[in-house]
Structures are given as structure tokens and as C-alpha cells.
């Protein structure tokens, strides 16, 4: 049997866990660029913002997929799709200060970090109207606190 496809104690496939946790690597690398105060500090900050915003938008896509699994008669199905679009709109709104020449990236990193940390609360609501895999919430909390926390830390360093 291939170990990659087996499930762990969290009941999620091991490959999902490995891929999920490895998704923290780009933010860790960006933090290294910022904390070493190298010539690539600004690149690290910009990459950290971009990656956090992309992942936050990605969560909306996951929520959309969960909404597709909701029972068609479920009254929550409509709000699920509104929730699913919110991360992309929020991420875009936090990008506007850069376009308009306002203070950036500190405040944008802070907002994305806060939203990432709070995002499992949306999953918590979703579990009442959609089927979420066993172990999903544990993984979501770990990844959201990890990525959101790193993003907030980088906001302070900006």
C-alpha cells in the first residue's frame, strides 16, 4: 500500500496534510527575506501579501465547492455562495492601497492576516449545512493560524 494515500489520525489523506502544511513554506520564505533584512526585504513583503491574498481567495473557492454539496433545499445555500465570494473581494480591496499609492503593505498584510485567522469560523458555520471531511476543522485551524499569524507578524515588520 502506498503511504501517500493512507489517512492519518485526522482522517484526512496524508497527501492533503503534507500539501496543506507545505503551503506555509512560501510565507516562511518571505518571512526569512524580511527578517534577514536583505536587499530582498521589500520583495519578501510583497510576496507575503500576494501569497496570503491568493490563499484567502482560494478559501472562497473551497467554500464555493462546499456550497455545491449543500442540499438544494437548504436555506443556507444562498449565503454560502455570498460567503464564498467575500474572500476574493476582500483580497482585492486590500490590494487597492498599492494601486492608489496609499500606505502599503503593512495595513494590507494586517487585514489579510486577521481575515485568515478568523476564516475557520466560516468553516465552522459551513459544517452545519455542508459535509466537511473529518479532520477538516483541525487542519483549517492549524493552517489559518499559521499563515494568518505569519502574515500579521510581517505586517508589524513592514
Quickly describe the structure.
It is built from seven helices and no strands.
Indicate the low-confidence ranges by residue numbers.
Answer: 1-9
Overall average pLDDT: 90
Straight-line N-to-C gap: 47 Å
Order of helices and strands: HHHHHHH
Number of domains: 1
- The radius of gyration computed from the alpha-carbon positions, rounded to a whole number of angstroms, is 17 Å
- Classify the helix fraction into a percent range: over 70%
Shape call: globular
For the report, how would you describe the main beta sheet? none
Structural class: mainly alpha
Count, helices: 7
How many strand segments?
0
Portion of residues in beta strands equals under 5%
Structure in words:
The protein contains 7 helices and no strands. It is an all-alpha fold. The protein has one domain (11-157). Helix 4 packs antiparallel against helix 5 and helix 5 runs antiparallel to helix 7 (136-157). Mean pLDDT is 90; it is low at 1-9.
What brief labels describe this structure?
DUF3429 domain-containing protein; transmembrane helix; mainly alpha; disordered N terminus; DUF3429; 73% helix; single chain; transmembrane; membrane; 158 residues
Q: Mind sketching the topology for me?
A:
Blueprint: H1 14-22, H2 25-35, H3 41-69, H4 77-100, H5 106-118, H6 120-126, H7 136-157
Helix pairs in contact: 2-3, 2-7, 3-4, 3-5, 3-7, 4-5, 5-7
Amino acid at each position: 500500500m502506498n503511504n501517500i494515500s493512507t489517512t492519518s489520525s485526522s482522517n484526512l489523506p496524508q497527501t492533503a496534510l503534507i500539501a496543506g502544511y507545505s503551503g506555509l513554506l512560501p510565507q516562511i520564505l518571505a518571512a526569512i527575506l524580511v527578517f534577514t533584512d536583505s536587499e530582498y526585504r521589500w520583495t519578501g513583503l510583497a510576496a507575503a501579501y500576494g501569497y496570503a491574498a491568493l490563499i484567502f481567495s482560494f478559501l472562497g473557492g473551497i467554500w464555493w465547492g462546499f456550497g455545491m454539496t449543500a442540499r438544494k433545499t437548504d436555506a443556507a445555500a444562498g449565503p454560502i455562495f455570498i460567503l464564498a465570494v467575500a474572500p476574493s473581494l476582500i483580497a482585492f480591496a486590500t490590494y487597492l492601497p498599492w494601486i492608489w499609492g496609499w500606505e502599503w503593505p503593512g495595513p494590507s498584510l494586517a487585514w489579510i492576516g486577521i481575515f485568515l485567522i478568523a476564516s475557520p469560523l466560516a468553516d465552522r458555520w459551513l459544517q452545519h449545512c455542508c459535509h466537511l471531511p473529518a479532520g477538516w476543522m483541525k487542519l483549517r485551524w492549524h493552517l489559518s493560524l499559521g499563515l494568518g499569524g505569519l502574515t500579521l507578524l510581517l505586517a508589524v515588520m513592514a
